[in-house]
Design a protein that fits this description.
By secondary structure, the chain is α+β, with helices and mostly antiparallel strands. Helices cover 61% and strands 15% of the residues. Helix 1 runs antiparallel to helix 2 and helix 5 packs antiparallel against helix 6. Keywords: Membrane, Transmembrane, Transmembrane helix.
């Protein structure tokens, strides 16, 4: 089941949590089977006292093995709840699309703010333009469409916001 869920886990946080759960359960099952074999072998070889320690040792090993998986899920969930920046590889792709759009429309490098919440990707580009550059609402819409289309292939529902301003205090 973990193998089947792995491909879905790349696109769904729920599938990823389920995949981690199945993976952890599989690991624990293997550990119980190996531990049981070790305990039987120890009992059979005349070491029942040592065999009685197999179970507590397995519990400790299981905790150490499963804890990083759980911490990873909690950390990822907290990043999304706190609206942190997307993971570095995704942020790199966002920056690339926004920079290409900036070059296409001869705009300065914008301040980019982004977050990912589930399947939604929020991207805001704030451009500080000079007083002599003229842009209308149609231009803003075209810039927004360019960013949305460029990020559309990533498989997220992209919510792009574009702000053009001549006041640098509105960008910080």
């Amino acid at each position: 089941m973990a193998t089947v869920l792995r491909s879905y886990a790349r696109h769904s946080a729920l599938a990823k949590a389920e995949w981690v759960s199945w993976r952890a359960s599989s690991l624990l099952s293997v550990m119980v089977a190996v531990g049981g074999g070790i305990a039987v072998a120890l009992n059979g070889s005349g070491h029942p006292t040592i065999a009685s320690y197999v179970d507590p040792i397995l519990v400790l090993i299981a905790c150490v093995s499963v804890t990083p998986m759980a911490i990873g899920l909690i950390r990822e969930g907290m990043r999304e709840l706190l609206e942190a920046a997307p993971p570095a590889p995704l942020m790199h792709q966002i920056n690339g699309v926004v920079e290409a759009t900036s070059r296409r429309f001869e705009l300065p490098t914008p301040v980019i703010r982004s977050t990912k919440l589930g399947q939604r990707l929020y991207v805001e580009g704030d451009y500080l333009i000079s007083d002599h550059q003229e842009f209308g609402i149609d231009d803003e819409d075209e810039i927004r469409r360019s960013i949305t289309d460029g990020l559309g292939e990533l498989g997220y529902q992209v919510w792009a916001t574009v702000e053009l301003t001549t006041d640098d205090r509105l960008i910080d």
